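This week, work through this protein record:
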Amino acid sequence: MDTNLILILGKVMGELYDLQSRQGIDKADKGHIYGLKNGFEAALTKEFGDLSVVREEEVEAVYEYFSPFIEAETETDELPSIEEMRARMENKGISQDRFIIILRYLNACDRINVDVNQFGDFKLIGRH
């Protein structure tokens, strides 16, 4: 990403976090906010370092994997283990972190009903 764009986005995010903080919404600590607003590399890397595009093929691979379970109204304890799912997704080039992000996206889009925490623990939550 272009350095000027990163600096501009950092400044904007820093200002946003600063406004939120003044409203009692603490999404970032004061040091991080200061770092973003003033172009500190560590803060910018923390904020923007992990940006990557989730390809539609990845989303469809996860959706296709879960669709049969959702349609069959499978109970959570009848699903394959998280290790088996992780291995299946890794064979398709999808890491566990990305798998979780995609599951959350599909849930937010109402394509599948699955509740996923940050550790990858999930449960089906009703019919799609």
Remarks:
- Residues 3-22 form the longest helix (20 residues).
